[in-house]
Structures are given as structure tokens and as C-alpha cells.
Amino acid sequence: MSNLSLRERDAATIAQIGKLRFSPLSVIGGQGNRLIEEGGRSLLDLSGSAGPAVLGYGHPAVVEAVETSIRNMAGASLLLYPNEPAVSLAERLLAITPGEGERRVWFGHSGSDANDCAVRVLQAATGRSRFISFIGSYHGNLSGSMGISGHTAMTHTLPRPGVLLLPYPDPYRPNFSAEDVLALLDYQFETTCPPHQVAAVFIEPLMSDGGLIVPPPGFLKALQERCRRHGIKIVVDEVKVGLARSGLMHCFQHEGLTPDLVVFGKGIGGGLPLSAVIGPKEIMDHAPAFVLQTTAGNPVATSAGNAVLKTIETEGLVERSARIGTLFSDALRALGAKHEIIGDVRGRGLAIGVDLVKDRTTREPVAATTTAKIIYRGYELGAAFTYVGLKANVLEFIPPLTLTQDEVAEGVAIVDQAIADVNAGKVSDADVASFMMW
């Protein structure tokens, strides 16, 4: 038996290229909306393990579905033969996701591979090689999905050739208005980006890792209309904000979008590796064996996915996300009366961002070390959450959709105290030196 701590063992064995650590939290278990760290302390999880823990930990519906499936496994893959859980989940997804004509579902393991799949099949099926995406977007960490992303954390890997990265209009920092961006797109279409070369535009209906940015009303619909005129497909990335999190079943419904392809990940598996792409038959049936992954669509993960969708319906999690999300956002907004560092609180439902600033007048972002210190102090006080944003200055809250009103109050109190303690100098630069990865 090793005498090393779990964190020390992690450092000695797990590749750095697969880590994004925000605090010393080392997890040995989880129950409900709480994580249990080594030593037995319970922490309120306000990040949902970066989104996948949509029903928290140990939810009875997921436990029962997984136990039943794994005791009588219908194979281990969707590759060679159909299995009941995967087909049932595909039927459920088609039933709850608006769309026209015949559509098909592809299953993967994460949002990264789902967006990667979408890029590959769209290029092949349309015969067009270019794509439109946004500065600040994060569509995944495989070569294809990274190639259409535009986040500052991904500058180590260049976008794919021919990608057009547009500014995403930010109402809080309006460097580019919606009209500016649409005019820029029109100019690109007229000059260096002929629209007949563009297969699709990838849209985050709520820009997540870019800073939880809610687009200006009507912007995305106007973008969609321009693309439709040129036969450019609309791909909506719902990986982080979809399936009830925004207070509607699909976040794109807030924007009046009618996507051609919809990409799901994170929460769809309830914590198990699962993703999905829904799209038109003529694209998704482009060619047999075109995007294969051996264990994708396996009966255990898709059984969990069925349990998630059933639970969203039976527990009224769409309405709950809207209601609890409003309570959470309002309570965080109220902290602005005490803390000048809070510049903006935004989001939809239970996808909430708190923009931290040095000065409310200039809206200059705080240094990343300040954000990291608040998260570190939050960990010490008993809550787990993370940060996002192109300047690493936005606290991100994407908790399980089962978060309670009492847990909202608990979480807000911890954030309040963490900000106060950081302002009082209770966290040093050295404390957070190991947690500046993003």
C-alpha cells in the first residue's frame, strides 16, 4: 500500500497532457451533488465535473440502468450489430430534438469526437472544405474539433486551413456588435471566403469556455439566415449547455435556431463516456464505416443516456434548471453590492458565469491568478468550481441539474467568503502556482 497521497500518485502516473487541475481536490467518491475527497471531506460540486455529472453522483436511475445493462451486456459495441439501449436512446433523441426530414444519430464518447465526426462527414458529404466558427469557441480536443475552435487556450494548435473565425459579439464588452460581425461575414463572403466553399457554421448558442457569453438577441438567427441562403449547414454545439441545462431542453431554442446538425456530449451520459450527433440522413448515411469507434454506442453508456433523458422528464429538470438557475444567478448578482470585483453575472439556467474585473468602469479583466485564488479558496471552504474566458477571468458554475435551493445558498455563501478572503490576501501566488493550466 502506497504512503503517497492520491494527488502525489496522480502526479507520478497520469500524463500532464490530459490534466486540467483547478485545486488540490482529489476525489475518492461522490453522493448526490457532493464530491468526497481523500480524507473523507464532502464538497459541494458546482462544476458537475466540468459538465458530465448532470444528475450528480450515484443517482438511482443511472445506477439501476448501468447495473442492469452490465449484468446482461448486449455486446460491447454498436459497430458490428445493433443493441437495444443504443437504438432506444437514438429514438429518444430524435423525438426530443426538433428537426426536419429523415435524420440519423451517431454515437461517440465525448463532445470532442462528436464535433470531430461532424467536421469529417460534413466535408465529405457536401464536397465543401471550409468552415465558419468563432473566436473563443471550444469544440473539442481532437484534431478535427480543435481545428474549428478558436479559444486562446488552444493556440498551441493552429486552426485547420480555410477556417473563418469570426468575433462572437459580447454584450458586456462590445468590441464587435452583432451588426459588425454580420457585416464582416458579408465582406468575407464577397472576398476571401466564397460561400460555396463553406460546408457549415459551428455555433455555440451560449459561448461556454469563451466566458459564458449570451449572444445579443437575434444575432444567431440572422447568422443562420445568411448561411441558409448559401446552402451552408448549421451545426449547433450543445455539448456543455444542452439537455435541460439552459432552462429549455435545448439551448438553441432560446435563439430560435433550426439546426441541421446538433452535437451532444458531457451530460448526456450522466457521467459515463457518451456523445451524439443528430443530422440529416443524406449526411449521416454518407458512407458505411466512415466514422468508427469500437466501443461507441455500447449498451452500458447508452443505458445511462436513456436514464438521463428519462430523469430529465420525470423530475422536471428543464423547469427546475430555469427556476434554480434564476435563484443562483440572482444571488450571485446580489454579491456585486459587496464586491466591486464582480463586473457581470450572465448565462442561462444552470450555466452561469461571473465576470471578474479590476475596474467596473473599464471592465478590464482581473489577472488569472486572482480567479485561480478565488477557486482555490472556494475549495478550502468546501465547494468545487472552475473558471473560463479568454482572459481566464470568469467563474463558471455548471452544477448538477439536481442542485437544491439550500445548496444554492451554501454555494453563494462560499463564493462570497472566497472573494472576501482573496481580497484580504489569504491566498498566495504560491498556493495557486500548480493550478494555472487554463
From TrEMBL:
Signal peptide coordinates: none
Q: Which cofactor does it need?
A: pyridoxal 5'-phosphate
Keywords attached to this Swiss-Prot or TrEMBL record, sorted alphabetically, are:
Aminotransferase, Pyridoxal phosphate, Transferase
PROSITE patterns the UniProt entry points to: AA_TRANSFER_CLASS_3 (PS00600)
Q: Which Pfam family, an example, fits this chain?
A: Aminotran_3
The keyword Repeat is assigned to this record: no
Q: Does the keyword Chloroplast apply?
A: no
One MF term in the entry's GO annotations: transaminase activity
Q: Which family does it belong to?
A: Belongs to the class-III pyridoxal-phosphate-dependent aminotransferase family.
**Know the name of this protein?**
4-aminobutyrate aminotransferase
